[in-house]
Write a structure and sequence with these properties.
The complex is a heterodimer of chains A (about 210) and B (about 240).
Chain A: H1 5-13, E1 21-24, E2 43-46, E3 50-53, E4 76-82, H2 85-93, E5 99-102, E6 106-108, E7 113-114, H3 129-135, E8 138-142, E9 154-155, E10 170-172, E11 176-181, E12 184-190, H4 196-201
Parallel strand pairs in A: 1-2, 1-5, 5-8, 6-9, 8-10
Antiparallel strand pairs in A: 2-3, 3-4, 6-7, 10-11, 11-12
Chain B: H1 8-12, E1 21-24, H2 34-43, E2 48-51, H3 63-67, E3 71-76, H4 83-90, E4 95-98, H5 101-112, E5 117-120, E6 134-137, E7 140-146, E8 152-161, E9 166-167, H6 176-182, E10 186-194, E11 213-216
Parallel strand pairs in B: 1-2, 1-8, 2-3, 3-4, 8-10, 10-11
Antiparallel strand pairs in B: 5-7, 6-7, 8-9
Helix pairs in contact in B: 5-6
Pfam family, one (chain A): CoA_trans
Keywords (chain A): Transferase
InterPro entries (chain A): 3-oxoacid_CoA-transf_B, CoA_trans_fam_I, NagB/RpiA_transferase-like
């Protein structure tokens, strides 16, 4: 069986290094905090101006002045710090954030990432995604390996407008884990119950041994 | 000379002209200058270019200025929550300059610091780079972005003293300090104006030099996405953060 959303999030949580500062995108990455391994402590950055993001508030304790980058009400933790947007993206642009775990529409074998715009559909904007992929030290993408038509989202070249060029380091999908290396992608791990043949068949990008 | 005005309309008097550029603070509906937006609506000033991370929602925040057709152009990173915005944009009635969120914050900060341009890696190899100068530094390619010098900044803080020394609250700070800095004139609305001397000088987030006019609430402070967790002992497992 391919991994489900929670299993993908749990696998992504294995990427977290103790003591680091991490930014999580919307979608599956928001599930990652539920699976942080024992003994690992990370500080979550919310790019609207916060380090040390806590869970959703209890009902009745929502604060309109305390939201995450998805505009959802959240809470603080004991070591929370607040700052303005220029400072927030200064720490992103300055390489202070160890890792971003992001969703994606397409990833290419050279590390190109597309996750902000589908031509012909409503354009909402890139938000902070372009800044994040250009600035953080390591970009891990979590997404389904194929779209709902069964077509690969792990491509030779992205077809959608890019969020960043050559920015992805690791891809975690429902079928397994792949690294972006010179010349293509390298299989790191295959999901339980998935064969290497399944993974290769679902991947348009070049896989090198 | 006092910086304190009795209403948004009074505070904006003499500062507005058609075709002007305005920087606005706020992220989503958090920390937006809702009173000053109402003041702009009342003034009828038009053909505005507004630099703001978002464009409000239908009927609230900057969405009000879109409904009254006072906006010519938005400089924003994300505008997904506003149907009237999309209608005007797709009909060609509204210009939109998509700017990555961090680039927008830095463009405001830079303008406020007298810096007309800066290089960043953000957007290299994407549509954001179209028409922009590229330059290599130490083997990496960067693109040139321009500072924003706004005719007016409208921002919201939590508290300010009578000279405009301001403190923000939690994530409502967001774009407010860089937006304030980017304005040739800045009007700030706060929930409470306190006497000079009652704020710890070491805890001021934005010094009063950036604040020219000041008004006091009340604010609606609408929540855009109300998300909560159950009080049960299982809280935190298996739910989206």
């Amino acid at each position: 069986m391919p991994w489900d959303r929670n299993q993908m999030a749990a696998r992504a949580a294995q990427e977290l290094e103790n003591g680091t500062y991490v930014n999580l995108g919307i979608g599956i990455p928001t599930l990652v905090p539920n699976f942080i391994p024992e003994g690992v402590t990370v500080t979550l950055q919310s790019e609207n101006g916060m380090l040390g993001m806590g869970p959703f508030p209890y009902e009745g304790e929502e604060d309109p002045d305390l939201i995450n980058a998805g505009k959802q009400t959240i809470t603080e933790v004991p070591n929370t710090a607040y700052f303005d947007s220029a400072t927030s993206f200064g720490m992103i642009r300055g390489g202070k954030i160890a890792m971003a775990i992001l969703g994606a529409m397409e990833v290419a074998e050279n590390g190109d990432l597309a996750n902000w715009m589908i031509p012909g559909k409503l354009v909402k904007g890139m938000g902070g995604a372009m800044d994040l992929v250009a600035g953080v030290k390591r970009v891990v993408v979590v997404m389904d390996h194929t779209n709902k038509h069964g077509e690969s989202k792990v491509l030779k070249a992205c077809t959608l407008p890019l969020t960043g060029k050559g920015v992805v380091d690791r891809i975690i999908t429902n079928l397994g884990v792949l690294d972006v290396v010179p010349g293509g992608l390298k299989i790191v791990e295959i999901a339980d119950g998935v064969t290497e043949a399944d993974l290769r068949a679902a991947t348009e990008a070049a896989i090198i041994d | 000379m006092t910086k304190i005005y009795g209403s948004a309309s009074e505070a904006l008097e003499g500062l507005l002209f058609d075709g002007m550029t305005i920087s606005a603070g706020g992220f989503g509906l958090c920390g937006i200058p809702e009173l000053l937006i109402d003041g702009l609506v009342e003034s009828g000033v038009k053909d505005l270019t507004i630099a703001s991370n978002n464009a409000g929602v239908d009927g609230f925040g900057l969405g009000k200025l879109l409904n009254t057709r006072q906006v010519k152009k938005m400089i924003s990173s994300y505008v997904g929550e506003n149907a009237e915005f999309m209608r005007q944009y797709l009909a060609g009635e509204l210009e939109l300059e998509f700017t990555p969120q961090g680039t927008l914050a830095e463009r405001m900060r830079a303008g406020g610091a007298g810096i007309p341009g800066f290089y960043t890696k953000t957007g290299v190899g994407t549509v954001v780079a179209e028409g922009k100068e590229l330059k290599d530094f130490d083997g990496e390619t960067y693109l040139l972005e321009r500072g924003i010098f706004a005719d007016l900044a409208i921002v919201k803080a939590w508290k300010a003293d009578e000279t405009g020394n301001a403190i923000f609250r939690k994530t409502a700070r967001n774009f407010n300090p860089p937006a304030a800095q980017s304005g040739r004139v800045c009007v700030m609305e706060v929930e409470e104006i306190v006497p000079v001397g009652s704020l710890d000088p070491d805890h001021i987030h934005l010094p009063g030099i950036y604040v020219h006019r000041l008004i006091q609430g009340p604010h609606e402070k609408r929540i855009e996405q109300r998300t909560v967790r159950p009080r049960a002992a299982t809280a935190g497992k298996g739910e989206e953060l």
